[in-house]
Design goal:
With 79 residues, the protein is mainly β. Helix content is 0%, strand content 32%. The protein has a two-stranded antiparallel sheet.
Length: 79
Amino acid sequence: MDFVGCEPQAAKDLRNFSRDRLHTNGQKAYYVTFVGVGEASPLNGDHVLCTLRFRALSAGAASIEAKDIILVDSQLNYK
């Protein structure tokens, strides 16, 4: 499958630094990165941050895995 795009939802007021990367070992990764800059309101609670869109290259099942998730607050504390 090919990555098509990232559509911000609750993160629409944040700056989008997300990147689609092809690593030297041939593995593709998409790094979803939203940053509150200036007067952007912080997010609290449960939200859909963004919608990722992919295009199928052929018929069949696809597997997508979210891993290495890091959330950072305004004090640069992370989980």
